[in-house]
Amino acid sequence: MILGAHVSIAGGVANAPQNAVDCTCETLQIFTKSQLQWQAPPLLRDEIAGFKRGMKLNHLVPGTVHAAYLVNLAARDPDLLVKSRDCMISDLGRTEHLGIPYLVVHPGAHRGQGAEKGIQVAAKSLDYIFRNTHAHRTMVLLEATTGTGSVLGGTFEELAAIRSLCRFPARVGFCIDTCHIYGAGYDIRTPAGYTATIHELDRVLGLDNVRAFHLNDSKGALGSKIDRHAEIGQGEIGLEPFRLLLADTRFTKMPGILETPGGDGAYARNLAVLRSLIPSP
Ligand SMILES: [Zn+2]
Ligand SMILES: [Zn+2]
C-alpha cells in the first residue's frame, strides 16, 4: 500500500504537498476548499501549478480529494440535492485540475425515503455529475460508511447497487474505510475474518473497483455504527488487520490514507506504527 494521510490545506492547496512530506507521507488526501463550504472561487492557476510542482518535487503519488461533508447525493430536500450535485461538479473539476485521479464522497443519507429510493437518487446524482463533467477523467469513489441511521453505504451491496444503477459505471469506484466497515459489522480482526471480508469485497464490489483505503482504527465497537476514528492500534480494531492489509499484495499500489485524530501533528507517529507492521525484506 502507498501510505499517506488527509493533510491540511491551510494557506492554500499549494501547501499540502509540503505538509504531506513533513508527515512522512508517500501520498495524500485533501479537501480542495473548506469542507463546510458549498462553493468556493476556482483554484488559481498559480495554486494549481504550486500544488503540482510540490507533488512532483517530493515524488508524492496523487491520492484522493475528499468531497465536502455537506454533500448528500441521496437528499430528499430538492434544494439540498441541487446544491449537493453542483458542489460535486465543482469539486470534481478542482480535483481534475490538481491532477488527482479520485474524488471520495459518502454515498448520502436517504432521510426516511427508504434505502431503495435513496440508492436511486444517489445514482441519478452521479449521472448528473458525470454528464456535466464529461471531459474529465476523475473518478468518484463511493466511501463505505458505518450505515448509521438513514446513511447509505453500510453494506457492500448498497455501494454496488448505486454503481450498477449509474449510467457511467466506469467512473465510479470505491474507497474502503477500515473504521467504517468495522462499525458496520465487518469483523476484520482475525485472519479468517479479514479473508472473509476481502472475499466479500471482491464478490460484491470487485477488487478492481476498489481504488483507495482509509486506514483508521475505531473508537466504536464491531457493528456499533459509530463513526469515530482512533489512532492506529489504539482503538477496537487493533493492529492485526493493518498488518494483514499491508502484507496483501493485491493492494500494493493502492493509496492507504490516514484520517486519524490529531491531524497533521499525529500522522508521522501513526505512519511509523503502520510501517513497523511491514516485514522487512
Ligand atoms: Zn469520508
Ligand atoms: Zn474515511
Helices, strands, pairings?
Elements: E1 2-6, H1 16-22, E2 27-30, H2 45-57, E3 61-66, H3 78-97, E4 102-105, H4 115-131, E5 139-143, H5 156-165, E6 172-177, H6 178-184, H7 191-204, E7 210-215, E8 217-218, E9 229-230, H8 240-247, E10 255-258, H9 264-276
Parallel strand pairs: 1-2, 1-10, 2-3, 3-4, 4-5, 5-6, 6-7, 7-10
Antiparallel strand pairs: 8-9
The structure holds zinc ion (ZN) (2 copies).
Which regions have little confidence, pLDDT < 50, spanning 5+ residues? Answer: none
Biggest pleated sheet:
8 strands, parallel, barrel
Structural class: alpha/beta
Radius of gyration: 18 Å
- Please name the fourth-level CATH homologous superfamily: Divalent-metal-dependent TIM barrel enzymes
Tell me the overall shape.
Answer: globular
EC number: 3.1.21.2
Cofactor: Zn(2+)
Pfam families: AP_endonuc_2
InterPro entries: AP_endonuc_2 (IPR001719), AP_endonuc_F2_Zn_BS (IPR018246), Xyl_isomerase-like_sf (IPR036237), Xyl_isomerase-like_TIM-brl (IPR013022)
Q: Can you put this structure into words, describing what you see?
A:
This protein has 281 residues and is of the alpha/beta class. The chain has helices spanning 16-22, 45-57, 78-97, 115-131, 156-165, 178-184, 191-204, 240-247, 264-276, and strands at 2-6, 27-30, 61-66, 102-105, 139-143, 172-177, 210-215, 217-218, 229-230, 255-258. The strands form two sheets. Strands 1-2-3-4-5-6-7-10 form an eight-stranded parallel β-barrel, surrounded by four helices. Strands 8-9 form a two-stranded antiparallel sheet. Helix 3 crosses helix 4 and helix 4 packs across helix 5 (156-165). The longest helix has 20 residues, at 78-97. It is globular. The model has no long low-confidence stretch (mean pLDDT 97). The structure holds zinc ion (2 copies). One zinc ion (ZN) is lined by residues 143, 177, 214, 259.
